[in-house]
């Protein structure tokens, strides 16, 4: 018993001990009623089986009519910053994923926060600025002046014979 953490905390400080107990009970209660109260205990992220996607997104980046091979020759951080913003930009063009998440989580309470949404969500004006920003980022990454930039989203799938089929091509940026 004397080796338990809470026993040692109780011996050290009774106020801290009761803080831990109250925090644990509060967290347990909130999780039981379905409210996630802290970023430390997000049980929902482990509760679903991971599904195999039917399609995979692949970006084709063409700068100055030359294909950029981001799979080689770049540090992982460069690759991440070349692809991650494109992924978010592709999803934000249809509907802001942050807005969808907030509507899902907050349900009817979302209406109370709607007046503050402009402070959190991306406006169409901000979305329109992305291609220019991305062009400058590609210039900085490649070290070349970019006269024209085209970014396409290819949705591909694997076939039974392990070949890849391009199902659709969507142009994200064409400057």
Give short descriptive properties of this protein:
alpha+beta; four-stranded antiparallel sheet; 46% helix; 18% strand; elongated
Report on the structure:
By secondary structure, the protein is α+β, with helices and mostly antiparallel strands. Helices cover 46% and strands 18% of the residues. It has seven helices and four strands; from the N terminus they run ααββαααααββ. Strands 2-1-3-4 form a four-stranded antiparallel β-sheet. α1 packs across α2 and α3 runs antiparallel to α7. The longest helix has 19 residues. It starts with a helix and ends with a strand. The mean pLDDT is 86.
* Rounded average pLDDT: 86
**What's the total helix number?**
7
SSE ordering = HHEEHHHHHEE
Question: What is the tally of beta strands?
Answer: 4
Structural class: alpha+beta
Beta fraction: 15-25%
Q: What is the makeup of the main sheet?
A: 4 strands, antiparallel
Q: Helical percent range?
A: 40-55%
Brief overview:
The protein has 175 residues and is of the alpha+beta class.
Secondary structure blueprint with pairings:
Layout: H1 5-12, H2 14-32, E1 56-63, E2 66-67, H3 76-92, H4 97-106, H5 110-113, H6 117-120, H7 124-142, E3 149-158, E4 164-174
Antiparallel strand pairs: 1-2, 1-3, 3-4
Helix pairs in contact: 1-2, 3-7
